[in-house]
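stage 2 :: seqdesign
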């Protein structure tokens, strides 16, 4: 009997095995993320009874997957190994794989990757989004690539997982847009410099305000350095970007009250690359920006979009009404469920 038929036979004999596996996996995963942690805090985190927690942690301790200490419970090296080995099975049983396929088909894009959990409740989910994005970048990079990168916390989460590699050390990371607001940590210029340093690669910044008046835009767009950047955007191989909620992005850009009202009146829900989209995916507003343009994004060999959080669900749906077919979306489980319900 092969492994698949053995597993199916086992499930017929013990139909409760799927639910038990998922519960125990979640307990171990939460301990790996938040340990050391006590039983009461663990129960609150997972919405499980004290009896459930006691039963499951006793089994995990007996299997040497966790260690119960005075300061709380922690995952052991053996526990981390088991989590790695069983993560794909958990994704299958919990319906994550089916959701990935459903969303990829619905959006008409290359692939959707869903990270288990809720980014708004668990900081480790944001880290996992970054890790998945780096793995995809390494798979898609071909060496000497031009990689355009936007700012934002989701994109910035990739930094910790970037290391010197043969395919990325020869890459050129390019800021996909100029400065936006006052926060420097997640600016495109800051992010590309950090990415390049982590990979031993080169980078190009764009030290201009992203949002320009018509007069300033017309004056700047013919400057040699700007024309050079626009040529680079035409030649970009990979784009890595986030997706923003429309009003949130307008506030970050310090947009005028009038502009914010215009966006609201036009029903803008999402933003990417300076383009604002309504719920139907129509472009309802486009700021004058010296940065990568949507047509240049669509010409790139690969596009990696990272966006998660319930406040981003409507924005993601709006953007992906017209996204490039070569796009890979990386999001979290809770956001994916919200999108599928709508």
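stage 2 :: out
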């Amino acid at each position: 009997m092969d492994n698949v038929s053995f597993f199916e036979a086992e499930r017929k004999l013990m139909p409760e095995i799927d639910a038990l596996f998922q519960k125990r996996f979640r307990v171990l995963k939460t301990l790996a993320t938040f340990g050391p942690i006590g039983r009461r805090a663990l129960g609150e985190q997972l919405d499980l009874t004290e009896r459930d927690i006691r039963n499951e942690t006793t089994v995990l301790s007996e299997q040497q997957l966790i260690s119960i200490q005075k300061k709380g419970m922690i995952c052991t090296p053996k526990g981390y190994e088991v989590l790695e080995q069983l993560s794909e099975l958990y994704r299958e049983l919990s319906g994550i794989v089916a959701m990935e396929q459903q969303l990829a088909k619905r959006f008409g894009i290359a692939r959707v990757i869903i990270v288990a959990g809720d980014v708004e409740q668990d900081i480790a989910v944001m880290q996992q989004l970054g890790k998945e994005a780096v793995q995809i970048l390494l798979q898609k990079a071909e060496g000497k690539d031009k990689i355009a990168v936007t700012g934002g916390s989701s994109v910035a989460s990739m930094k910790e997982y970037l290391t010197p590699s043969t395919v990325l050390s020869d890459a050129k990371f390019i800021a996909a847009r100029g400065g936006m607001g006052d926060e420097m940590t997640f600016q495109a210029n800051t992010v590309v410099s950090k990415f390049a340093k982590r990979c031993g690669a080169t980078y190009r910044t764009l030290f201009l305000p992203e949002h320009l008046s018509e007069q300033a835009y017309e004056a700047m767009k013919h400057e040699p350095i700007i024309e050079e950047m626009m040529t680079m955007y035409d030649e970009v191989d990979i784009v890595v970007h986030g997706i923003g909620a429309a009003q949130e992005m307008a506030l970050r850009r310090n947009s005028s009250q009038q502009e914010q009202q215009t966006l609201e009146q036009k029903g803008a829900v999402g933003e990417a690359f300076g383009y604002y989209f309504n719920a139907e995916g129509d472009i309802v507003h486009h700021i004058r920006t010296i940065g990568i343009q949507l047509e240049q994004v669509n010409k790139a060999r690969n596009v990696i979009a990272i966006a998660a959080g319930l406040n981003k669900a409507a924005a993601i749906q709006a953007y992906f009404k017209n996204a490039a077919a070569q796009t890979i979306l990386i999001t979290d489980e809770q956001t994916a469920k919200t999108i599928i319900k709508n």
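stage 3 :: structure notes
- The chain has two domains: 3-89, 96-341.
- The mean pLDDT is 88.
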